[in-house]
Fold this sequence. Notes:
- The chain is mainly alpha-helical.
- Helix content is 80%, strand content 3%.
- It has a two-stranded parallel sheet.
- The chain is globular and about 85 Å long.
- The two termini are 38 Å apart.
Amino acid sequence: MSLGAHLIELRRRLFIAALAVIAGMVFGYFLSDWVLGALRAPITELAAAQGRDASLNFTDVSAAFDLRLQISFTVGLVVSSPVWLYEIWAFVMPGLKRHEKRYAVGFVLTAVPLFLAGCAAGWFVLPHMVSLLTGFAPEGSTSVLNARDYIDFVLKLMIAIGIGFVLPVFLVLLNFAGVLSAAAILKSWRWAVLAITLFTAIATPAADIVSMFLLAIPMVLLFFAAAFIAWMHDRRVRRTQQQFDLELPAT
């Protein structure tokens, strides 16, 4: 494909993904009250556990509406993840043969649960983060959190970790497509561990070392799981090639 054809293909993929996200936003708008209540739960638990007043604060007239739109967008991004994950894969790996098309199905069936698992992992460590960071406030003080900043932090954390959990799937499918070998994946394991550590350090607050490791450990395990699957695939391909060479008639 020419550069122009690639740009047209990219525009088409982005348009489909955007439509899916918008449809998910409509669904997320009706869930926004429930999501906001769930996101507020760590604040309520904090107030009960530390015996202090803690609440979310809306600093301007439009803050509540903006917050509802932000929640709707994030819910739409999560709900529409099967569509936009497939569109990313379809653009990155165009021109697959018919028997290779199943890789796209395998990608979606694997990437979507991992993305949701990553979002769940971010949600799992959230109460620990809130409790730790607000615990530095002096005893008897009141924690008044800016609602926009708090929700922005929570939602970005969940989406970032969700995407981080999906990246090993790209490694496996690039290997299946013959673009990346298992040896190349394993050779870069030190850089991968360093990148994962930096990623989780940025995604979590600097003072919360425990949450950083709680997120980094499963991501490192997923990387090595992807390398193992790629190694198994490469070994099977080599055996198939050797068998094919043996069956060739001598000339």
